[in-house]
Amino acid sequence: MNSPKVAVVMGSDSDLPVVGRALEILDKFGIGKEVRVISAHRTPGMAVEFAEGAEARGVDVIIAAAGKAAHLPGVLAALTTVPVIGIPVKSSTMDGLDSLLSIVQMPKGIPVATVAIDGSENAALLAVQILSLKYPELRQRLKDYRKQMADDVKQKDLEVRDKLT
Amino acid sequence: MNSPKVAVVMGSDSDLPVVGRALEILDKFGIGKEVRVISAHRTPGMAVEFAEGAEARGVDVIIAAAGKAAHLPGVLAALTTVPVIGIPVKSSTMDGLDSLLSIVQMPKGIPVATVAIDGSENAALLAVQILSLKYPELRQRLKDYRKQMADDVKQKDLEVRDKLT
Amino acid sequence: MNSPKVAVVMGSDSDLPVVGRALEILDKFGIGKEVRVISAHRTPGMAVEFAEGAEARGVDVIIAAAGKAAHLPGVLAALTTVPVIGIPVKSSTMDGLDSLLSIVQMPKGIPVATVAIDGSENAALLAVQILSLKYPELRQRLKDYRKQMADDVKQKDLEVRDKLT
Amino acid sequence: MNSPKVAVVMGSDSDLPVVGRALEILDKFGIGKEVRVISAHRTPGMAVEFAEGAEARGVDVIIAAAGKAAHLPGVLAALTTVPVIGIPVKSSTMDGLDSLLSIVQMPKGIPVATVAIDGSENAALLAVQILSLKYPELRQRLKDYRKQMADDVKQKDLEVRDKLT
Amino acid sequence: MNSPKVAVVMGSDSDLPVVGRALEILDKFGIGKEVRVISAHRTPGMAVEFAEGAEARGVDVIIAAAGKAAHLPGVLAALTTVPVIGIPVKSSTMDGLDSLLSIVQMPKGIPVATVAIDGSENAALLAVQILSLKYPELRQRLKDYRKQMADDVKQKDLEVRDKLT
Amino acid sequence: MNSPKVAVVMGSDSDLPVVGRALEILDKFGIGKEVRVISAHRTPGMAVEFAEGAEARGVDVIIAAAGKAAHLPGVLAALTTVPVIGIPVKSSTMDGLDSLLSIVQMPKGIPVATVAIDGSENAALLAVQILSLKYPELRQRLKDYRKQMADDVKQKDLEVRDKLT
Amino acid sequence: MNSPKVAVVMGSDSDLPVVGRALEILDKFGIGKEVRVISAHRTPGMAVEFAEGAEARGVDVIIAAAGKAAHLPGVLAALTTVPVIGIPVKSSTMDGLDSLLSIVQMPKGIPVATVAIDGSENAALLAVQILSLKYPELRQRLKDYRKQMADDVKQKDLEVRDKLT
Amino acid sequence: MNSPKVAVVMGSDSDLPVVGRALEILDKFGIGKEVRVISAHRTPGMAVEFAEGAEARGVDVIIAAAGKAAHLPGVLAALTTVPVIGIPVKSSTMDGLDSLLSIVQMPKGIPVATVAIDGSENAALLAVQILSLKYPELRQRLKDYRKQMADDVKQKDLEVRDKLT
Fold first, then answer.
1. pLDDT at D165 over 90
2. Looking at the predicted structure, is the pLDDT value of residue G106 above 80?
3. What number is the average pLDDT over the span H53-81?
4. What pLDDT does residue B2 have?
5. Which chains sit next to G, with 3 or more Cβ pairs under 8 A?
6. Three-state DSSP state, B142
7. Which chain E positions have a beta carbon within 8 Å of C40's beta carbon?
8. Model confidence over E38-61: pLDDT tens digits?
9. Which residues lie across from A63 on neighbouring strands?
10. Which of B20, E28, E86, H131 could form a disulfide with E73 if both were Cys (CB 3.0 to 4.6 A apart)?
């Protein structure tokens, strides 16, 4: 339990293209990870087992992605005090609004840290920010990552200025 | 188990004013009932115990009311094959849309029979309609109830015609 | 009338691709079925005739699918005490919100058991859950079906863990 | 049948405060009227009888007001070729959006002329505009009414200019 | 002015594919028509001239289609007492909700008879229903048209029953 | 025409409580003003006359407030090249969304500078920012105003820190 | 600083296709321009530097385009008294509603002049209208541009009348 | 810096009633706190100074509450790698949807951990869950708190069962 560990759970393997972008970022920061497909509705027992054991398995943060009436993040959050980050996945109707409200509007007592619809990069980055409380070496890597993002914008800025002014 | 039985569950006792209107209708039809306060998030273990034991306790139909990210109906539905009717409760923000979408947009595999926002009368009536498959004597009572509703409208119609034409 | 029977009605034959997924599930459970195209607006007389005769024809549950200002489920529900399950069909505008609200927001007195937008699998499964009150042998088949769903998720879970951890 | 006649129907007598403002305008224009309380769901037979007989009773235009899953205007429109004007009534949830979409989003074939949420004055004025095709004397009264409205605005304009400039 | 005449106006020629379906129906009913492209915003003078002259040109009903902040139907309605039917056109954002609200939510005094988003067939049929007050021969044609629609549904019903039961 | 002048127009005198907050700010900056009640729908001729003459009367900026299907700002903008700022006024239904979309979603060619729902203070401040292009002395007053706003926040910050830390 | 100058800023170079249509219009009116890629979130320092220096660099108006939680226009507006025009960019979810509300609903004190979702042509035209306060020669060019737009509509009107009447 | 510290920032002192419920919970858990009023728009410099110095001041987590176009949480998040929790505050229009989308829909790179509209209790509890990574003694307190919440529900459940069964 001396190295950071994030569990990434999706409600269906069809969420993998969205979730995959979170996994890449976790890898880039060298974060250990569990990746799981668990349905709050079709495999409720697995959800209980997974969440109740998370702390003992050394999981520091849980990222959960789900669509439609997206109960997975809230269901997991109810079963552990490990922080849960929720990714609302856009499905074929309602443009993601159903997923977003089902995740973010958690009643008093059990929070889910919600990011944007399909916002898996930010879910991973938020996990790293949270982990940096316990693993301070991550904070510098976050600053480097931000610097890289800023440099990318600056590069684009130069290209656009060259092309258009 | 030879008489009809409906379990009515609310996510918080603050939902009682809404749920109360369902209880009155169940009483009017002489339906046996369990009334419970169970939070999917604050008492997940109670939710599991309640739902997994429902069939054995002779529960024919479950009515579950909840607000905001209203997971209770879906969480119960995942744990039993007893039909679950969901009542989205309007809370202080989003005018009930969050509750509605969190209940009705259940992913493939685990349905919740959803009624209108704050629609507890209809939840009870739907329960009675479902019960009438097993307890045919209820069907006549439903027809009488509908006749009474129609008569009430007709009475109002006469009053309005008298007053306004 | 000794075997289960579900009537599946769609407002237009263009709803068939959505409704077809409900029919497959009913077949899988061995449920007898009537399949109809009836428009609440273009063939109101057919709707009356169909709904008023449903009980006598031995229909246990009605599933009705419609889009836009989707009145069909409510119109049928007003004419019979057989439980009506409504499927809001997404049409070319409003992403299904119009269909959903037109079906779920039924006024006091006449309920429609509403499932997700385009949620025809769940409409069929809800019908089977309701039927199992009268035909108890269906309950075991429902449990087997749920076990199969859970096994599918577990299989996907294993595949994802293999591939990504 | 030589004098104009509008039928004004509401789904519930609780809609009377909204509908009353339409009645006043019809009276101001000297239009004959039928006023009815008919529920598409609780008294479907009355709705059929009312709508199918409307033409024979000399009804030129129907105004129908309803809330929530507001099927009344569409149900009436399906049963007569007399033009139907729909008033979406705001109810206790969803701020009238459910009523609006349930009325305006009518599928191809059966139109309802929809006005604003709670827009009963405009429903009455639209009825008069439609009637003026058959009863040309109404057109001048409409022009006088518009002139009066314009004069009222001009009066307010003068008052505001006096007070604030 | 002894034959029925409908003016069909669109805010941009890009609305022609939507509006075209209204024109076909008007032709089928033998209604005389004016077809115009007039922008409430880019050609406000044309809008004034068109609307103020409509009655004198023998226009019985105006159909106006527009998208986004769709002011055209309301602007025309303010300038004539000829009934105006509004078609909200879906544009590239907001799924038609902007057009719908901009047309249907007209303030007190100036109504627009609004149909569904992209609902041009219904706009034309509503025009014919309105025209039938003045031109009674249209009423029979409307009844025939409805019978044809019903027959089409019945034919589809038979095909679906053959194929699926 | 050597001093700044803003015309403030409201669609109805019931908008005065909202608009009043804009007038106070214009007074604070010493901006000359015209205040008018003009309805795009009930007094379309006044709207044309007002907007076409605005430039000649020395109006630099127009602020127009309206609710529901709020056409006034767009109608004025179509008739003058003077910049028009639109204030969507919240009315009794739809929570201001109808007004907002009717104003902000202007089609290509005729812009309206839209501020927040009921955002009249910002409408006035935006007017002053625009005026400062022509009347540079206003820029310093804007900076002073901003400093005052910042000082107010800092004062509140001190109070809250005192009370709560 | 004797010639008009508009700064056009986008939150990401992926907004260039939208923003490009604004640049073309500015070029057509001969307006000098700065074009920049600046992210309020990834390059906050650049945003501060850009906005605080805008007035000194002779920028008369800023146009800022951004999507999702679109803070860029508001962040820039907080740092300068130069008028800021905001373009909400539609992104992959929520159909632009998130961008629109994040830009238009600015709290009291700091306005952003918001145009339609993806409405970059109107952003440019609004900028020119604002510039015409300081550079009166632009007003005639605006009138010519409007005349050209009107002529285009009239041409389309003639074509449609030829083809369809 | 050896004790947990949360900074709680609100965009306006009018947010204090909402934010106050978060402060109570932080106090209950014995968390050190900074409480500030900082406006992203009216005091942008204070926002920069506050956020850039947060890490050095020993702040572990930031909670930021704001309404309408609620930029504050995102603006702070852009300036520090300390995790930022956003509370969307419901304001007088749009029922909190504007605040929610302005906070949760953050673009790629800078996450904000969003909780429910007006969900300040959950913001505080999420902060404690995050802090427990670094201060493990908090985890037990969280478990006790959850047990207390569960006991409260169980007590209500008993009361309701007594009263209603």
1. no
2. yes
3. 98
4. 77
5. A, E, F, H
6. helix
7. none
8. 999 999 999 999 999 999 999 999
9. A8, A85
10. E86
CB contact under 8 A, C41 and D110: yes
Q: Which of residues 49-68 of A touch B (CB under 8 A)?
A: 67-68
Averaged pLDDT of chain C = 97
The CA distance from A32 to the nearest CA of chain H, in Å, is 16
- A101 in contact with chain C, both atoms CB, cutoff 8 A: no
Rounded to 5 degrees, φ, ψ at D32 are -65, 150
Cβ-count burial of A52 within 10 angstroms (0-12 exposed, 13-18 middle, 19+ buried)?
middle
For residue F88, CA distances in Å to A32, B130, E68, G112 come to 51, 48, 15, 14
Which pLDDT belongs to residue F68? 98
pLDDT at H165: 73
Could you tell me which of D42, D45, D52 has the C-alpha nearest to residue D12?
Answer: D42
D116 and chain F: CB distance < 8 Å anywhere?
yes
Q: What is the dihedral of CA B127, B128, B133, B137, to 10 degrees?
A: 160
Do the beta carbons of residue D63 and residue D123 sit within 8 Å? yes
pLDDT band at residue G92, thresholds of 50, 70 and 90?
Answer: very high
CA gap H51, B139 in Å, rounded: 66
- Which residues on B lie below 8 Å from C147 (Cβ)? none
Q: Give me the torsion for CA of F18, F24, F25, F26, rounded to 10°.
A: 110
Residue of A12, A102, A112, A117 best to disrupt the B interface, most CBs of B under 10 A: A102
Task: Give per-residue pLDDT as tens, D112-160.
Answer: 999 999 999 999 999 999 999 999 999 999 999 999 999 999 999 999 9
Decide if C81 and B139 are in contact by the 8 Å CB cutoff: yes
**What gap in Å lies between CA B140 and CA B149, rounded to an integer?**
14
- The residue with tokens 């007002």 is F50
Query: Could you report the predicted ipTM of this complex, rounded to two decimals?
Result: 0.98
**Per-residue tokens: A148:** 């890289």
Is the Cβ of D114 closer than 8 Å to some Cβ of chain E? Answer: yes
Give how far E23 is from chain F: nearest CA, Å: 24
Q: Residue F7, SS3?
A: strand
The answer, yes or no, to whether C and B have at least 3 beta-carbon pairs within 8 Å is yes
pLDDT band at C68 (very low <50, low <70, confident <90, very high): very high
Residue E144's identity, in one-letter code, is D
Calpha distance C41→E155 (Å, rounded)? 16
The average pLDDT across E100-110 equals: 98
Residue G7 has pLDDT above 90, yes or no: yes
* Contact (Cβ atoms closer than 8 angstroms) between residue G87 and residue G18: yes
Chain B contact present for A96, CB below 8 A: no
pLDDT in tens, D17-76: 999 999 999 999 999 999 999 999 999 999 999 999 999 999 999 999 999 999 999 999
CATH number of A5-137: 3.40.30.10, 1.10.10.10, 3.90.1300.10, 3.40.50.1970? Answer: 3.40.50.1970
Nearest residue, CB atoms, B160 vs list D37, D43, D69: D37
DSSP secondary structure code for residue F82 in this structure: S
- State the Cα angle at B43 between B40 and B47, rounded to 5°: 55
Chain F contact for E150 (CB, 8 A cutoff): no
How far is it, in rounded angstroms, from Cα D69 to Cα D97?
10
Nearest of H33, H74, F141 to residue G72 by alpha carbon: H74
In this prediction, residue E2 carries a pLDDT of 77
**Rounded alpha-carbon distances, angstroms, from residue D88 to B60, C139, D112:** 37, 43, 11
E142, amino acid identity:
L
CA A47 from chain centre, in angstroms, equals 17
Q: Which pLDDT score, from 0 to 100, does residue B67 have?
A: 98
Residue of B nearest to A79 (CA): B44
Instruction: Tell me, yes or no, if A42 comes closer than 8 A to chain C by beta carbon.
Output: yes
Instruction: Return the CA Rg of chain D.
Output: 17
